Structure formats: structure tokens, C-alpha cells
Amino acid sequence: MSDRVESSTPTVPAQPRLDREAFYSRSFRPPVTAWERRYRQWIIAADLAATVVVVVVVGAIMQTRHPHWGVTPLFGLPSLITLEVLTVGAVMLAFGLSRVWHPVVLGQGPEEFGRLGKGLFASIVALNVALLAAGSPAGARFWVFVVVPAIALLVFPQRYLARRWLHRARKQGRCLLPVLATGTHQSITDLIDRTKKAPHVGWRVAAACTVHGGSDERTEIDGVPVVGRFTDVAEHVKRGGYRIVAVTPDQYWTPERLRRLAWDLEGTGTEMVIAPGLMEVAGPRLHISGVLGMPLLRVSQPAFTGFSRLVKSVVDRVGSLVLLLLLSPLMLVTAVAVKLDSRGPVLFKQRRIGKDGVPFTVLKFRTMVPDADRMRADLIEVNEGAGLLFKLRRDPRVTRVGRLLRRYSIDELPQLFNVLAGSMSLVGPRPPLPEETARYAPSVRRRLLVKPGMTGLWQVSGRSELSWEESVRLDLRYVEDWSLALDLMILWKTLRAVIGGEGAY
Q1: pLDDT digits (tens, 9 = 90+) for 58-77
Q2: Less packed terminus of the chain by CB within 10 Å, N or C?
Q3: What per-residue confidence (pLDDT) applies to 21?
Q4: Cα separations in angstroms, 56 against 69, 136, 141, 238
């Protein structure tokens, strides 16, 4: 009988008596976590050093400007010294309680910075409560609102630089977490492909276990060796030192078998990760709760209205106005360069489709010769664009100035007027052409549920290098998983992509 067949009345075999000392012995610990430990220790030391430096510098400045400020005793000691020691202790304790150094979040996603923010806010509250209880002077409480933000100004960039170093090391094949993948051949292949496309995550599929192991004459999957069956996973973890066991969709993995696997992995230091395989939804829409004694994964509806969307609209209008004021000299110089480079108007106007399918006119600096539209028919056979898009790496219609403007996305700056007018957003899906939307499948039309953006996930994930399917997937992911934090992350990554001219032509 196949291993896939589950008994109608599954029974749990009696568990042998555990020798806990042997079971939790160091030999079961994955040896590859040495770099993780060093990286974590370095981060803790860097956070401590940054906190101490800020506290000492701010204390010295305040003491210089107000010589008598730190004389009044606090807790029986000179107030400045007490404040400095208390601040360092409170910040580091708040960081620890907020789990800012947990290995799961170090170098991963916006949660790392979110926990840093929570830790700093908690330290402000704790310090103010302690100083209020001690009857400290008002100047001491003012200190908190100076020194903690100053710590943030040093800790956040420091953590970002550490993450950049880690991601660069992972792209070079270092600081990776060996993964033992289980599931079907197709799901394991998909996982391997995703890890190769996103090396910054730090996963390296080192081995695989399938329902039949290597007995089906398939000893490897996409270059990854098949080392055994599902029933052998725990033993291979103990022998191979894998850092993560990734359970991908397969009908073999019933709740009972997953529970047994979790028990078998206890004490090994290996993390078990389960891919639901139901739908590509992530971020704030996913919630795990216990109902009727069973864990349930709740998927809330996408938020297209409400307070967060109002905040986004306000940020769009205010942000576009500020950027227009700051970038007006650059836009003026660009306009003169376009006019002098070739005949024709400075601005290029084109009909695009916006939110809910409403058309609008998008503005750009002209980067092509005036009769570019008529020349397109002659170039359609050499189109290099993906799917419904028309793109050419060496487009003969692009002017000399236009190539420079496109490389650094300067040609898109007039779209700030579209954002200010409300037809576009700073962040959103790519604004499509009418002929594109006319050929959209029903699922792709979900891109039109929100305003198109000057930048988006497509912009920071490869831009013109993306396939049509990948571009659509990223746009739909943005629509489904939108949040203010995601917008901030995209805006930051856009700045890096534009400076590097990545994927633009």
C-alpha cells in the first residue's frame, strides 16, 4: 500500500522514553549556525556601541551648554551619569524584549526595522515612567526625547548597512541556510527556483525528501540530491545538520504526520517551515487564530478604502508637491536639454488607464523623435518586450538625451503632476495602455482596482527585465497585500534602483 494512504482511524505509536541529555546533545545542533551566531553577536555589539556613543555625546553637549544641569542628584547619584546608565540599560532591555535580535528577523523584510521602532518607543515609555517615579526634574525627561531619537538616527542606518553586507554575502554564496525540502517534485522545483531568484533570503536547498525517495529512479531534482523518503526527514536532519525543513504541498502531509515531524525535530535546532500552497497572499491580510481547538489561517479582504487609504492619498498629494518643489531645478534643466536635443514638444502626453478603468493623460519628458508612433509598426517584428508590452533595448526612436533620461527615470518626473491631480499614486501598479487593458484576462483586471503608480514592485524587481507573467504577478501581489509599510519599502528601493539604472531601457 502506498505511503500516501492514510488510515481512517490513525493511531499514534507509543513514544519511547526519552534520554533528554542525549536527545539535546550538541551533536544534534546544525554546525552551519556558526555564522548566524557571529552575525547576531556583531549586531548586538553594534547596537550597544551606537547607544553608548549617542548617550555620551548628547550628555557631553548638554553638560557643555548647561553646566549645572547634571548636578542635581538622581537616585542618590549625579543625574547625568545616572541618566546615561539608565538610558543604555533601558534601550538594550527594550531591544531584548522586542526581540530585535531574533535570528528569524535579522536581515529579513520590514519586520526587523519594525521591531527596532517598537523597542525604541518602549524605551521612551519606560524611561519616562522611571524618571517620573523618581521625581526627576523636567530637564531629565526632556533628555529622553532627545537621546532616543538620536539613537534611532544611528541604529537604523547601521542595521541597514549590516543587512546590505549580509545580502551581498548571500549573493556570493556565503551565509546561507541549508534547507531540506519535502514535497512533490513540482513543489520542490518551484522552491529551488525561488531560492535561486532571491538569494538575499539566505535559503539554499541542499537536499530533498520525496514520498518514494530515490527509488523512483529520480535521484535529484534540479541538481538537488534526493536523500530519502518523508519518513526519513528527522534522521537526515540529525545527520546532515540542515537549518530549515521546508514542507511544501503534498497530500502525504496530514496534520498528524506534521505533528509527529515537529516532535521529531525538537531539540535539533532546526526550524520547520510549512508552505500552505493555497494562494499567494501575504503581509497584513494573513492572520493565524485558534478556533474550536484548531489553528485557522484567516485571509481578510483587500483594503481599497478606509483610513489607511486616506493616509496614502494625503501622502501622495503632499509628497508630490514637496518633490515638485525640490526637483524643479532638475526638471527645468531637463526641459531645456530635451528642447535643444531634437525638434518637438518637451512633454510627451499619452492616454493611459487608471483606477476602475478610467482613462487619463500621463505626462513624461519626451525621449523619442516626434514621429515615434508611426515608426512602431515597422519595429513590431523585433519587439523584445514581454507579453503585451512593446520594448526594444536599442530603440532607434530614442534620442541621445532620451537614453540618459530613461536610464535614471528622469523622464517620469512630470508624472508628479498626475499624482498631485489625483489620477496616479507615488506607488502602485504600472499604468497600462488602453490596448493592453482591452486584452486583459479577468484576473489581470484586478490591477485596475487601485491607482497606477510612478513606481511599484515591478520597478524595484527588475523593471524592463521582468517577464510579462512576473510583472502581472507583482502588480497583483501589490493590490492584494498593500500596506503603508510596503509603500515605504518600495519608495526606498526605488531610489536605489534609479541610482543604479537597474533594468531600464
Answers
A1: 888 877 776 655 545 554 44
A2: N
A3: 42
A4: 15, 20, 17, 48
C-alpha cell at 504: 531600464
**Nearest 5°: phi and psi at 77?**
-125, 160
| Neighbouring residues of 482: CB distance < 8 A, sequence distance ≥ 6 | 302, 303, 450
273, containing H or E segment: strand 271-274
Grid coordinates representing 151? Answer: 539613537
Cβ(247)–Cβ(273) below 8 Å: yes
Backbone angles phi, psi at 65, to 5 degrees: -75, -30
In the block, cell 556601541 appears at: 49
**Could you tell me which of 431, 430, 415 has the C-alpha nearest to residue 490?**
430
pLDDT of residue 412: 92
d(CA 367, CA 338) in angstroms, rounded, equals 8
pLDDT at 294: 54
Length of the chain: 505
Q: Which residue has cell 542595521? A: 159
Q: What was the pLDDT predicted at 19?
A: 43
Cβ atoms of residues 187 and 247 within 8 Å:
no
Burial (CB count <10 Å: 0-12, 13-18, 19+), residue 180: buried
- pLDDT for residue 254 is more than 90: no
CB 188 within 8 A of CB 213: no
User: Structural domains in the chain?
Assistant: 32-171 (no CATH), 176-277 (3.40.50.720), 307-500 (no CATH)
CA distance 28 to 241: 7
**Minimum mean pLDDT among 239-248, 350-359, 367-376: which range?**
367-376
Asked if residue 179 lies in contact with residue 243, where contact means CB atoms within 8 angstroms, the answer is: yes
